[in-house]
């Protein structure tokens, strides 16, 4: 069992915890991926399936993670060790490390957003509106981030890591909680302001009509189901191991079920508000809305939205607000990713400051490759994005091994205002959902590379192959299996509250 | 018809979020006396 160390860190209030886990969940995926997926899947039917996926995928997984953190007061590796035995430590470490690997390239996005924020604040949109158009925004984007070595993007990436590390080093109440209490409300407020402005544009209502018109054919289309489930998995962050880490600092009587439900719908609220900004503005301003919405995350945000803002009255203010929302969403997620690594090291006896320095240094080393070369970024996005689905499976298996009913009776139900046992017990069906969604992604990746799907080098060329995914996953697993004994021995420093 | 769908979605998704926050905060207030 963990060493008893009284007086650990704790959130000052329940709102602090909710703002922090919302901050983890609400990320750039809400603002630039959700509207694209919604558009690609034809609107309304996607939204209905999305809500079903919240109940069947997100809420049970968020509960599983949360209960692991609150019960053990240790992060991923330590919790797997305490609840399942020393031999499972490597699995918890692998789960945590997948998120750290994800974080290392995700910070690059925060750097991009900061660059565009400064670009728009210094009058870039005036140059675009005076004749540059998408040709100019595309060129600026290409020169900045798509032409390796992207040195300027790397500099912004370093600044982003440092900002997040300073917040983490200040601790749970003084850093993480304080930052999220500002960042998260600001995302919602900014999105509402943007909606109010965008809906005054002629033609914007057509965008709302597109979002909320339900085509029954969508329900019969397996692709729409798979994309909605994937979006829920990648947007809510359910089953990634980060809710787990923040519950290490939760109050003893924290209500896991109600918080999980609230965060799942809070994330959906942010995503749908973003959809109500992006899609109506594209319908109002772009000559071919579907081409713009299908232009990929980078194309939509950095090339097309920037151009659209440039051709709107008050566009500079709109652009600043849009990128500020993206900045708040991205930074709050980066904080969670660095904290995950930090807490795992603290469970091994490192001080918060030392652990933060080690994790931030790792981010700088591992993320630099993605910052400098977008081909590597794309590879990392695919490899660790799909691996996150597997982390969810590990949590479901771990919950079933420990006992789904036991966890409900011992830890969830006694502190819950929302006693909905079936919602938690749906975790038993997760392996079936996982097999379908993960299998679909893996199968797609095979079809993208006929005859070459098993290749992995160079990573830029085989960015999305099953070969590159399996090699990187297995490499990480081998390292942690080799370190299992040593990690199990050091993981004794739980965050025990007074 | 789409207006009705929009109203329903806002009530269900955003309403659930608002309800959850309100319940969580009022329950904490009660516990703190």
- Gap between N and C termini of chain B, in Å? 46 Å
Distinct helical segment count of chain B: 1
Q: What Rg of chain B do the Cα atoms give?
A: 14 Å
What is the β-strand count of chain A?
Answer: 0
* Number of domain modules of chain A: 1
Summing up helix and strand content along with how strands pair, one would put the structural category of chain A as: mainly alpha
Question: At the first level of CATH, what is the class of chain A?
Answer: Mainly Alpha
What's the shape of chain B? rod-shaped
Global mean pLDDT of chain B:
93
Structural class of chain B: mainly alpha
Helix content class of chain A: over 70%
What is the gyration radius of chain A calculated from CA atoms? 22 Å
Q: Gap between N and C termini of chain A, in Å? A: 18 Å
- Find the CATH topology of chain A: Amino acid/polyamine transporter I
Instruction: Give the SSE order of chain A as H and E letters.
Output: HHHHHHHHHHHHHHHHHHHHHH
Shape by Cα distribution of chain A: globular
- Assign the CATH architecture of chain A: Up-down Bundle
Number of helices of chain A: 22
Largest interface: A-B, 26 and 19 residues
């Amino acid at each position: 069992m963990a060493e008893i160390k009284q007086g650990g860190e704790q959130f000052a209030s329940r709102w602090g915890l909710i703002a922090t886990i919302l901050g983890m969940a609400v990320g750039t995926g809400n603002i630039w991926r959700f509207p694209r997926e919604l558009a690609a899947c034809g609107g309304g039917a996607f939204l209905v399936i999305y809500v079903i996926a919240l109940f069947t995928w997100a809420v049970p997984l968020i509960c599983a993670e949360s209960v692991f953190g609150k019960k053990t007061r240790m992060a991923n590796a330590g919790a797997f060790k305490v609840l399942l035995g020393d031999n499972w430590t490597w699995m918890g470490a692998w789960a945590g490390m997948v998120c750290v690997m994800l974080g290392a390239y995700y910070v690059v996005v925060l750097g991009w957003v900061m660059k565009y924020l400064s670009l728009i604040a210094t009058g870039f949109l005036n140059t675009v509106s005076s004749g540059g158009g998408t040709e100019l925004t595309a060129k600026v984007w290409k020169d900045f981030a798509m032409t390796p070595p992207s040195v300027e993007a790397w500099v912004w990436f370093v600044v982003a890591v440092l900002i997040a590390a300073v917040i983490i080093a200040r601790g749970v109440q003084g850093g993480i909680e304080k930052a999220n209490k500002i960042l998260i409300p600001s995302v919602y407020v900014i999105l509402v302001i943007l909606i109010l402005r965008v809906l005054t544009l002629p033609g914007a209502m057509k965008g709302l009509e597109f979002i909320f018109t339900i085509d029954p054919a969508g329900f019969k289309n397996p692709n729409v189901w798979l994309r909605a489930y994937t979006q829920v998995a990648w947007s809510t962050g359910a089953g990634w191991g980060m809710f787990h880490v923040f519950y290490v600092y939760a109050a003893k009587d924290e209500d896991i079920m109600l918080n999980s439900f609230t965060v799942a719908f809070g994330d959906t609220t942010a995503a749908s508000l973003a959809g109500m900004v992006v899609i109506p503005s594209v319908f109002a301003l772009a000559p071919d809305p579907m081409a713009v919405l299908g232009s990929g995350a980078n194309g939509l945000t950095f090339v097309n939205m920037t151009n659209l803002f440039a051709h709107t009255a008050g566009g500079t203010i709109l652009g600043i607000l849009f990128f500020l929302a993206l900045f708040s969403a991205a930074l709050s997620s980066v904080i969670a990713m660095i904290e995950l690594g930090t807490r795992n090291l603290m469970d091994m006896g490192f001080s918060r400051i030392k652990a933060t320095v080690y994790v931030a240094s790792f981010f700088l080393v591992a993320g630099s490759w993605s910052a400098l070369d977008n081909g590597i970024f794309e590879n990392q996005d695919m490899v660790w994005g799909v691996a996150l689905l597997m982390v969810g499976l590990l949590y479901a298996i771990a919950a079933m091994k420990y006992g789904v009913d036991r966890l409900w009776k011992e830890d969830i139900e006694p502190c819950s205002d929302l006693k909905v046992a079936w919602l938690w017990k749906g975790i038993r069906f997760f392996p079936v959902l996982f097999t379908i969604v993960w299998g679909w992604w893996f199968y797609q990746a095979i079809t993208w590379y006929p005859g070459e799907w098993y290749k992995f080098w160079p990573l830029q060329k085989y960015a999305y192959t099953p070969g590159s995914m399996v090699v990187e996953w297995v490499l990480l697993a081998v390292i942690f299996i080799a370190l299992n004994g040593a990690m199990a021995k050091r993981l004794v420093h739980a965050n025990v509250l007074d | 018809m789409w207006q009705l769908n929009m109203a329903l979605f806002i009530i269900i998704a955003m309403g659930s979020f608002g309800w959850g926050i309100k319940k969580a905060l009022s329950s904490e207030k009660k516990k703190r006396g």
